[in-house]
Design brief:
The complex is a heterodimer. Chain A is an alpha+beta fold. Helices cover about 35% and strands about 30% of the residues of chain A. Chain A has 5 helices and 5 strands. In chain A, a hairpin with a 4-residue loop joins strand 3 and strand 4. By secondary structure, chain B is of the alpha+beta class. Chain B is about 40% helix and about 30% strand. Chain B is built from 5 helices and 5 strands, in the order αααββαββαβ. Chain B folds into 2 domains: about 40 residues, Arc Repressor Mutant, subunit A, CATH 1.10.10; about 80 residues, Lrp/AsnC effector binding domain/regulation of amino acid metabolism (RAM) domain (Alpha-Beta Plaits, 2-Layer Sandwich), CATH 3.30.70.920. A 4-stranded antiparallel beta sheet of chain B has the order 3-4-2-5. Classes of the chains: A alpha+beta, B alpha+beta. Chains A and B meet through helix 1, strand 1, strand 3 and strand 5 of A and helix 1, strand 1, helix 4, strand 3 and strand 4 of B. Strand 3 of chain A pairs antiparallel with strand 5 of chain B, so a sheet runs across the interface.
């Protein structure tokens, strides 16, 4: 079980994952060895799975991001597995989510420009299996993106 | 620097999986010296291609069992109301991401909550009371997968 110290560690680390261990320990008024034992425990329990670099696809030349909300033909028993398996093969798909609600699956698709997007959409998205309906949302701006948990 | 070579691409990919790897360890795997690897990573940061790090936390183990995506349509539009809405919605701790989109909705929100009852509380007390909120559509996240993308 997590206690208040664990939560404080995760809160600080979540706000700034690059904090060096000694400084983090200082802020939490823990000794570095106690802090690293806590971190080891959080990792062993699978609470803290790791740290990932965040890629800015726009800086890599992918100016367009589209959110495709897809309804599948659920009369096909393998619709989800077939669809997701095929969507994984499209390199420009950077996120696959499944939902309970009006939408079944959502894909985040990136492209260099609108012409490139159209090419991906026609040749790689519309050809995915068991699609009943697609709606597109075009990304204009990210207002908040840290994905922090309110620990 | 959108002209990345194979080494740069491999570094971005590796760091997106695990950002805590040292330049020395990454270099050994790629056949680059530690200083050369370090310089490349530095350049990726400076160019904004790697825009930071994010903790990979198991939300469920931290007690956040439910993630819901909300499509929000504003009832009244105008520059002032967009800014008011964005400021107010970004301040809600349970709202993890806010994206301004074009399409059937104006904003897409990722909301985390302890359970469905907790989500209902956030929705009623915090989201539905935001300035200018009109139609809201909710989809409960069942699964999520981040893909490496076109590298």
């Amino acid at each position: 079980m997590l206690d208040d110290v664990d939560r404080r560690i995760l809160r600080q680390l979540q706000a700034d994952p690059t904090l060096p261990l000694p400084e983090l320990a200082d802020r939490l008024t823990l000794t570095p060895s106690r802090l690293s034992r806590r971190l080891d425990k959080l990792q062993a329990e699978g609470v803290l799975r790791g740290q990932r670099a965040v890629i800015d696809w726009q800086a890599l030349g992918y100016a367009v991001e589209v959110s495709l909300r897809i309804t599948l033909d659920k009369t096909q028993s393998n619709a989800f597995d077939d669809f997701i398996g095929a969507a994984r093969e499209v390199p420009e798909v950077i996120e696959i989510q499944t939902f309970l609600g009006r939408v079944d699956v959502r894909l985040s698709v990136i492209a260099r420009d609108m012409a490139h997007y159209q090419e991906i959409y026609r040749s790689q998205i519309l050809t995915l299996p068991h699609i009943a309906d697609i709606e597109a949302l075009m990304h204009v701006a990210r207002i908040k993106s840290e994905e922090s948990l309110p620990i | 620097m959108s002209d990345l070579d194979d080494f740069d691409r491999a570094l971005v990919k590796a760091l997106a999986r695990d950002a805590t790897q040292s330049a020395g360890a990454l270099g050994r795997r790629l056949g680059l010296s530690q200083p050369a690897t370090w310089r490349r990573i530095r350049r990726l940061h400076d160019a904004g291609i790697i825009k930071g790090r994010r903790l990979d936390l198991d939300a469920e183990k931290l007690g956040f069992g439910v993630t819901v995506f909300l499509g929000v349509k504003l009832a009244t539009k105008g520059r002032v109301s967009l800014e008011d809405f964005e400021r107010a919605v970004s301040a809600i701790p349970e709202v993890q991401t806010v994206e301004h989109v074009l399409g059937m909705y104006d904003y897409r929100l990722r909301v985390t909550a302890r359970d469905i009852a907790d989500f209902e509380r956030v929705l009623r007390r915090r989201i539905m009371t935001l300035p200018g909120v009109g139609d809201v559509e909710a989809n409960v996240l069942l699964s999520e997968e981040k893909r490496p993308g076109p590298l």
